[in-house]
């Protein structure tokens, strides 16, 4: 190939994004790896975001932990944000325990009842018996 065969307006170099003569395409290979990496990162971020309510409930030992987990799964599979918001709200707030004061009132009343709630009084040990089969003087005074 001589210099006369090259067009006078052609550049002296070829850019790196142009496909090589052997068929390798650097830009295509880079974009495939970049796209797969971005999709994986978005998926990890999405799943991490959906697990936030469960992590909150687990760290606080929340009594409604299973409810929070169910709401988070519903939000994940149905793509309804209202379930995720409900899971965050349930995990974020502790509901007051209304049964505890009533339980303590019932325990207090139960302890006031005669014969109930109090431990039984221990019985007195039997008086020692002498060799003659009679009781000692101190035992007679107690009786």
TrEMBL record:
Keyword match Transmembrane: yes
Keywords attached to this entry: Membrane, Transmembrane, Transmembrane helix
Highest taxon in the source lineage: Bacteria
Composition bias, Basic and acidic residues: 134-143
Start and end residues of each stretch annotated as Disordered: 113-143
Residues spanning the membrane: 26-49, 70-93
Biased composition (Pro residues): 117-128
Stated name of the protein: Uncharacterized protein
Lineage: Bacteria, Pseudomonadati, Pseudomonadota, Alphaproteobacteria, Rhodobacterales
